[in-house]
């Protein structure tokens, strides 16, 4: 079997359970968050030339999926849709359409462990039934604090306030549209 077809076969073997998972829950939130994660990790990562962060499609997706479906589904979502599937798609696409010089097709590390810890935190916040805005604030503070503690960044003082304000504003204004689906 040619290497390209072998990669495609592995991709389809990984995509098949993802589609079953997606259709099993019949969740608009799950479908939209999968699209957001793949957009950020596969498309936007290739073309993003801005060195500072802004909207966090992956973080918002993890937050919404775990709030909607709970701990186990949140952990599965992080492992499968945030970590595994984008890596496979990026490996299949190789270096096509890459404009961003910092783009790496395989992205795993401390941030993924932080994502798993965030799923546990969101599950606790879900149990406490806090308001969506306050849950997002606690989640973002925890995530960025843990990221900074585990892998310090010199841009933290610039990126964090921008990121926090932007993502909290997004949740605040989208709250009326999101709450019926959670």
**Secondary-structure element string:** HHHHHHH
Q: What is the beta-strand fraction?
A: under 5%
The general outline is: globular
Average per-residue pLDDT, rounded, comes to 83
Query: Which ranges are low-confidence, i.e. pLDDT below 50, for 5 or more consecutive residues?
Result: none
What's the tally of helices? 7
Helix content: over 70%
The number of strands is 0
Radius of gyration equals 17 Å
Sheet with the most strands?
none
Structural category: mainly alpha
User: Could you tell me how far the N terminus lies from the C terminus, measured between alpha carbons in angstroms?
Assistant: 45 Å
Describe it for me?
The chain is mainly alpha-helical. α1 (3-25) packs antiparallel against α4 and α2 (28-47) runs parallel beside α4 (71-93). The radius of gyration is 17 Å and the shape is globular. It is built from 7 helices and no strands. The model has no long low-confidence stretch (mean pLDDT 83).
Which terms would index this structure?
mainly alpha; 182 residues; single chain; 7 helices
Helices and strands, with pairings:
Blueprint: H1 3-25, H2 28-47, H3 57-69, H4 71-93, H5 110-128, H6 132-150, H7 156-178
Helix pairs in contact: 1-4, 2-3, 2-4, 3-4, 3-5, 4-5, 5-6, 6-7
């Amino acid at each position: 079997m040619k290497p390209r077809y072998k990669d495609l076969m592995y991709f389809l073997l990984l995509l098949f359970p993802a589609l079953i998972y997606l259709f099993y829950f019949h969740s608009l939130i799950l479908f939209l968050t999968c699209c957001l994660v793949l957009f950020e990790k596969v498309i936007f990562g290739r073309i993003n030339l801005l060195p500072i962060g802004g909207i966090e499609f992956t973080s918002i997706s993890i937050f919404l999926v775990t709030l909607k479906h709970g701990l186990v589904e949140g952990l599965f979502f992080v492992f499968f849709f945030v970590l595994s599937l984008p890596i496979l798609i990026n490996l299949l696409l190789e270096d096509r359409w890459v404009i961003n010089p910092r783009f790496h097709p395989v992205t795993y590390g401390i941030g993924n462990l932080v994502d798993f810890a965030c799923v546990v935190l969101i599950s606790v916040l879900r149990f406490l039934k806090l308001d969506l805005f306050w849950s997002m604030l606690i989640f973002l503070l925890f995530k960025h604090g843990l990221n900074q503690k585990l892998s310090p960044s010199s841009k933290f003082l610039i990126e964090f306030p921008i990121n926090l304000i932007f993502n909290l504003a997004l949740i605040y204004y989208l709250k009326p549209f999101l709450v019926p689906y959670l």
